[in-house]
């Protein structure tokens, strides 16, 4: 009997120890489960962060490509602007002159019919030669020219614009009962560098000028043309 009582006591203690052990294991299992849940939540957040970072990386790469494209266009625009600046600086051509630089001049009729405009109002680019009356195109381009002629009724009044010796346009008025006549004309010509233009009287023609600038010749480069 005594032995049986001791056995009962040992069994009771063993069961108690097992119960305590099971409780500890259950507590640890709950802790592990909570920890696993936290890990899963953390993993989900990390995955979301990775996805967000990937999206941001893709956006950055897209922005970098767009930036490179902008840099390329900006560089091209800067080159174009530099070219326009060089063109505007190197190709400034304009002149305007009248026939008389002092007193009164009756020009014609004469054998040398070339009109030499002596009174220079402007000659940017030095295209016009006041000693010969010839304008020489410094660059390829489109040029605008205009002239005005004035004369009296005793002779044919008017003049012709020549390009490289070939007549282009003219003014003309035959003798009439009018006391005087005035006329003008203009043209846009495509010129190559080195082309020459000048004004000539008609046969038996005459023009008049004084410091009022009745008979004039003007021109300027509209824009250069690339070859």
TrEMBL record:
InterPro entries: C1q_dom, Cerebellin_Synaptic_Org, Tumour_necrosis_fac-like_dom. Its main location: secreted. Keywords: Coiled coil, Secreted, Signal. It is found in: Secreted. Residues 25-87 form a coiled coil. It comes from the Eukaryota. The keyword tRNA processing does not apply. Residues 88-227 form the C1q domain. Gene3D superfamilies: 2.60.120.40. One of its GO terms (cellular component) is extracellular region. This is Cerebellin-2-like. It comes from Labrus bergylta.
């Amino acid at each position: 009997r005594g032995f049986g009582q001791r056995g009962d006591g040992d069994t009771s203690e063993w069961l108690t120890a097992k119960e305590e052990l099971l409780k500890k294991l259950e507590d640890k299992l709950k802790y592990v489960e909570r920890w696993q849940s936290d890990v899963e939540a953390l993993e989900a957040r990390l995955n979301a962060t990775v996805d967000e970072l990937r999206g941001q990386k893709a956006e950055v790469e897209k922005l970098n490509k767009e930036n490179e494209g902008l840099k390329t266009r900006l560089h091209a625009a800067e080159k174009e602007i530099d070219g326009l600046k060089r063109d505007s600086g190197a190709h400034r051509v304009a002149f305007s002159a009248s026939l008389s630089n002092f007193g009164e001049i009756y020009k014609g009729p004469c054998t040398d019919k070339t009109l030499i405009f002596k009174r220079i109002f402007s000659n940017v680019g030095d295209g016009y030669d006041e000693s010969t009356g010839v304008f020489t195109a410094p660059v390829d381009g489109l040029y605008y020219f205009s002239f005005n002629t004035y004369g009296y009724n005793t002779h044919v009044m008017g003049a012709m614009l020549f390009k490289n010796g070939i007549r282009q346009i003219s003014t003309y008025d035959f003798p009439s009962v009018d006391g005087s006549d005035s006329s003008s004309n203009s043209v846009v010509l495509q010129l190559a560098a080195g082309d020459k233009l000048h004004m000539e009287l008609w046969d038996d023609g005459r023009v008049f000028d004084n410091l009022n600038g009745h008979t004039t010749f003007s021109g300027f480069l509209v824009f250069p043309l690339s070859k």
